[in-house]
Amino acid sequence: MVRSAQKRGNDMSDVALSAAVRSSLLALQRTTDLIDRTNNRLSTGLRVANPVDDPVAFFSSKALRDRAFDFTERKSGIDQGISTVTAALDGVESIDSLVRQLKGIATSLKSSTGTQFVDLVNQFNEIRSQIGELANDSEFQGINLIDNTTESLVVNFSNTTTSKLTINATNLRESGLSINPLEIRADSKIGVSATVGLASGISLISGTNISTISATAATAFTAIANKDALTVTYNGTGVVVDSSGPITLSLTSSVTITIRAITGQSFTVTRGQALSLSLTTVVSFASGGAFNASGISGVTTGLILGVVGGAQIFNNGTGVADVRAINTAGTFQSVSFVGENLPDDIDNITVNMDAALQTLRSEAQKLGSNVALLQTRLDFTEQYTNTLEGGADKLTLADLNQEGANLLALQTRQQLGISALAFAGQSEQGILQLFN
Predict the structure, then answer these.
(1) For domain 60-181+344-386, which architecture applies?
(2) pTM, entire model
(3) Domain coordinates of the chain in residue numbers?
(4) Is the distance from CB of 319 to CB of 197 less than 8 angstroms?
(5) pLDDT digit string, tens, across residues 121-134
C-alpha cells in the first residue's frame, strides 16, 4: 500500500496543466507572496528588515543609527556635566551671599566698641568658616569644582578626542578667597634667634638695626633655637668657638633682655614701639700668629609672622643679625588684625571682601558660560540624533498607509486570480463533455 500511495503521488506530480491554468496559478502564487510581504511590513512597520530586503538601504540605515547611538551615549555625560557645573554655580552664589554678610559685619566694626566689637569679630570668624563648609558641600557625583585646584571636569561631546570641554576646579574656600580670620590687636610676644657672621679679613661684626613693629595678636611666639658656630684656624690647628656671646634686645622704653643664640627667648612688644637688636661675640686667640676666619654660611632672613605682608623686623643688609625663624604654632600670615578705633584695619578688610566678591563674580561668569555651552551642546545632540534616526527611518520604515492600500489591492487581485483559475479549469471541463 505504501508503494501504491507513492505511485499515486508521483502520478499527481506528473499531471499536465494547460497554459492558461499554469499562468493563472503562477499569478495567484505571486499575489499570495506579495500579500505575505505586505502583511509582514504592516506587522513590523519595516520596509527593510534585513540585508536581503535591500542591502544598500539596510547598511546605510545601520550606519546612521550607530552614529546616533554614539551621540546618545555622550548625551548622558553632557547632562551630568550640566548638573555638576550647576551645583558649583549654586555654591558660588551662596558663598557670594556669605561674603556680602562678612562685608556688612566689617563695616559695623568701625562704629562698635567693647563687647560688641568682640562679638562682631567672633561672628565674622564663624561665618567665614562656613564658606569652606559650603564649598565642600557643592559636590556632584564625586566632583567638586570650587573647593580645590586639582580636580577637573571633562565632558566629551563625540568620539572625536578634541571634541570635549575641560573645566578646571578653583579654590573658593575662605583660604582661596584670601579671607583671613580676624584677630583683635593686643600686646604680643615675639621670640627671635640670631646668628653671627664674618665680614672680610679677621674682623668680627657687631650690628644694630632698629625697626618699628606693627601690633600683632596676643599670642606667645617661641623662637626656634639655632646654634651656629665660628671656625678659626690658628697655626694649622682648628679651634671651634660657639657664638654664645651676649645678644642684647632692648625696647625704646629702655627695657633690656639678654638672650643667647643657643637657646632663644621671647619678649613682649606693644604696637608702635621701636625695637633694636645688638649682637656681640668675643673670640679669643693667641697673639702673634696669623689665622684665617671663615663665616657662617646659609644665614636666612626671617619674617615676623603675623604682620600683614610679612614685614621684616631685623635686617641690616649684611646677613649678620637676622630674625631666623618664628614658631607660631599656626600660620599667622593668614590673620587679619583689627583694633577698636582703627579704621585702616577695617578698610583693609573691606578691600579684601571686595576682591573676594570680584573673584566670585568672575568664577560665576565662567561657570555660567560653561553651563550655557553645555546646554547648547545638549540641544544640538538631541536634535542631531533625531535627524540621524529620522534619516535611518526613511531608509527602512514602511509607509503604513501605502502598505494598507497595497494589501487591499492585492486581496482584490487574489480574488480575481482565483476566479481566473476557476475559469481556466472550466474550459478544460468543457472538453470532458465530448466524452459524455
Answers:
(1) Up-down Bundle (1.20)
(2) 0.55
(3) 60-181+344-386, 183-334
(4) yes
(5) 899 999 999 999 99
